[in-house]
Design the sequence.
């Protein structure tokens, strides 16, 4: 049988909130100076099965978050912006500057686009304006918790000796130092590193990097290989990465 909670304040509108079976357990921090609003949010989240700590001012909230950082961290912060003393914007800013990535849901009566953009830019993950329905607040909390619990994809990296190529960033480093490559140089190197030790003819390299409709001189491949060697090799005259295979073309490694 489902349970319901009726909002206590006219700041909240909407129907009563059903509790879902199997709600996940997580520790949440609610920061709101209005006692009625604070307790209404707290009760709604408790009914969802979350452990909830509530604070009435910004300084108390920041101290609570710092203490939690050394132990059981909060999974989410529900944060009002207009707090006595230390404001919500400053709390967001300090947390992010300290490298704290705890998801933050801002709740605020400030409803202008400028306020929403500023809140997100200083570190909030979502922004909910008052008055709001408790159903929506809980749904947004769930969404933020799901997002933070989803493993982030590993950044794919192509590596060989002292070279690293980051395909999703179009970036190359040599001995940890970024190398400035032109688009064609980058594409050539990416192709080589994707297929180590494969021998490529000039025509195949032109086809893969310059395209089927390229009608220029194939010597442009040699020029770009030379430029790559100057940027990547310790001794471009005796290359270790970009090897010439006489009579056939080039290979990497």
Sequence:
């Amino acid at each position: 049988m489902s349970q319901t909670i009726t909002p206590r304040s006219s700041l909240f509108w909407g129907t009563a909130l059903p509790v879902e079976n199997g709600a996940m357990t997580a520790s949440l921090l609610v920061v709101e100076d209005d006692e009625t609003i604070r307790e209404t949010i707290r009760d709604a989240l408790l009914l969802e099965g979350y452990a909830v700590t509530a604070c009435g001012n910004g300084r108390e909230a920041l101290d609570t978050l710092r203490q939690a950082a050394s132990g059981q961290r909060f999974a989410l912060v529900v944060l009002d912006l207009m707090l006595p003393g230390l404001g919500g914007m400053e709390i967001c800013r300090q947390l992010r500057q300290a490298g704290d990535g705890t998801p933050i849901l801002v709740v605020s009566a400030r409803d202008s686009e400028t306020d929403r953009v500023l809140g997100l830019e200083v570190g909030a993950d979502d922004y909910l304006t008052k008055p709001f329905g408790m159903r929506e607040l809980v749904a947004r909390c769930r969404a933020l918790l799901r997002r933070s619990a989803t493993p982030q994809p590993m950044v794919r990296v192509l590596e060989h000796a002292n070279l690293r190529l980051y395909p999703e960033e179009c970036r190359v480093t040599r001995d940890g130092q970024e190398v400035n490559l032109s688009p064609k140089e980058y594409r050539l190197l990416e192709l080589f590193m994707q297929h180590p030790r494969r021998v490529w003819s000039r025509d195949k390299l032109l086809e893969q990097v310059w395209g089927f409709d390229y009608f220029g001189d194939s010597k442009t491949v040699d020029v770009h290989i030379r430029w790559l060697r100057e940027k990547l090799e310790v001794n471009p005259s005796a290359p270790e990465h970009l090897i010439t295979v006489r009579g056939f073309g080039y290979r990497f490694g």
Remarks:
- Residues 27-149 form a domain with the Rossmann fold fold (CATH 3.40.50.2300).
- Confidence is low (pLDDT under 50) at residues 1-24.
- The chain has two domains: 27-149, 158-252.
- The first strand starts at residue 27 and ends at 31.
